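Researcher: Structure prediction, please.
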Amino acid sequence: MDAPLRQRLLDFSIGNKFRRKGPLCVALIVTRHAAKRGLPLEPEELLTEGGGQVLGLGRSAVQAILREHGIDRVLAAEGGRTSRGSLSNMRDYVGFLNGLHQEGRADLKAIEQFWIARVLEFFATKPFKLKMDTARSLRAAIRDLVHQAVIRQKDAEGIHYAGGLLQHLVGAKLSCALPHLAIAHHSFSTADGPTARPGDFVVGDTAIHVTTSPGEAIIQKCRHNLEDGLRPVLITQTKGTVAAETLAENEGIADRIDIYEVEQFIALNLAELGGFSSKGQRAAIEEVITCYNGIVERHETDPGFRIEIA
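Model: Predicted structure follows.
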């Protein structure tokens, strides 16, 4: 899709609030009508016989389109059919498509793909759930959050939820554990290299790297840290610690890098902040999650990174 068309679609979707399930259903169905009937469309021809609903709008039709794109999740129980604003949304969208047609920009295949991407974003905007259960360990709670992120990542290809979740959790934990220091936070999509940052976080003379899958590139960053007089710390998932240690040994710097498993790194600090009591730990968790959500709000455009305490 060319950039001008994408921008027009983004402006329309934001300006007309076409990011909720009802409008998204309308967009998918009307785009298919346009593909079958051709443009321009006449709004009155897209009404049911009684004139009270959008022609063809329903769960089965919407889900059929989604399945063509490999999506099995249900977008709306009634496919947007019962939404009061469906008729108005249909008329607005038809006018928009007709305008694109007049400009010679109505690439309907690309337009449908745009709406499919918005559907995936909709599925991803629900916050992660942190289950507060005194019968479970803090590590298990953190592990469950990461698992949710991995599952969501599979549904929204190209959005690295697991990596972003880990980075911001570590950042929130650092801010809460070290309130006297100003911890710099960054968008997960902002790579260290282009911004010349020595790591995801720099605290004192320590460069902290957070990753789900350690590779040679991050070990090289650790080597550069050492050359610059910084102490490198690498935080990763359980399965990544072995790989990181092996890579560090191959590079000859294994005894100069601290490698931590992220669940333990966060859980132990939460226990300490909470005074190793159930009541205190809950207060510590709430503090860290509040900080985490604030970081997401300031530095990420995707609200799907948020965490809700259940």
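Model: Residues 3-124 form one domain.
Researcher: Thanks, that helps.
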